[in-house]
Specification:
With 221 residues, the chain is of the alpha/beta class. The protein has two domains: 147 residues, HAD superfamily/HAD-like (Rossmann fold), CATH 3.40.50; 65 residues, DNA polymerase, domain 1, CATH 1.10.150. It has a six-stranded parallel β-sheet with strand order 5-4-1-6-7-8, sandwiched between helices. Strand 4, helix 5 and strand 5 form a beta-alpha-beta unit. It is globular. The mean pLDDT is 95.
């Protein structure tokens, strides 16, 4: 691995296990459409992609209905669901090690930036990040992982060649590959070994500390 100066982290499923809050918010939104959820665990498919994409993909909503779904989702999420989660064990130590080694550490998430900042502050890890890049609240003008990563590059004057991506879903791998970047995929989130191999993640790890081990080992190689 190259000795990268900057690390981009996905948020949901990589820094924070936000599954409970996301599932509860989606369930709330679906109930507003009189759609009953029989297995809440299946709503984990909403963790990662933009909400409008998920409502269309998994429930066949059209554009208008998907937009309304996001409105309903946020009725629950903005004050309650947003805090139904926790930082993964070992993630703060990982971030601390990277910062002590002089790395620039940033977030690139499909979650609206306003919510991302609130979540990271709530769980005490916002202080480790040099920049937090998220989606716009309308999830249209800046929503895809590629758009969000470009926003981070432009905002911070960093080159993709100096950055490695860390995430737990195919969207993180695809975003990295779009810019010719390498990606570390994490098994403790919501992706799988099969997904990571299919999309060509360069590295696969099982714990947050393995992320730091891998990146910092390159300093001495």
């Amino acid at each position: 691995m190259k000795n990268y100066t900057t690390v981009f982290f996905d948020l949901d499923g990589t820094l924070i296990d936000s599954g409970e809050g996301v599932r509860n918010s989606v369930e709330y939104a679906l109930k507003r459409f009189n759609i009953e959820v029989t297995d809440k665990e299946k709503l984990s498919c909403f963790i990662g992609p933009p909400l409008t994409v998920s409502f269309k993909t998994f429930y066949g909503f059209d554009d208008e209905k998907a937009d309304l779904g996001v409105v309903y989702y946020r009725e629950y999420y903005k004050d309650k669901g947003i805090f139904e989660g926790y930082a993964y064990e070992g993630i703060e130590d990982c971030l601390k090690r990277l910062k002590e080694a002089g790395k620039r550490v940033m977030v690139a998430t499909s979650k609206p930036e306003e919510y991302a900042k609130r979540v990271l502050e709530k769980f005490g890890i916002a202080k480790y990040f040099d920049f937090i890049a998220g989606a716009t609240m309308d999830e249209k003008t800046r929503a895809t992982k590629i758009q969000i990563m470009q926003y981070a590059f432009d905002s911070c004057g960093v080159s993709p060649s100096d950055v490695i991506m860390v995430g737990d879903r195919c969207f993180d791998i695809e975003g990295a590959k779009n810019f010719g970047m390498e990606c570390i995929a994490v098994l403790y989130g919501y992706g799988s070994q099969e997904e990571f191999q299919k999309y060509g993640a360069e590295y696969i790890v099982s714990t947050p500390n393995e992320i730091a081990d891998l990146i910092l080992r390159a300093i001495n190689d």
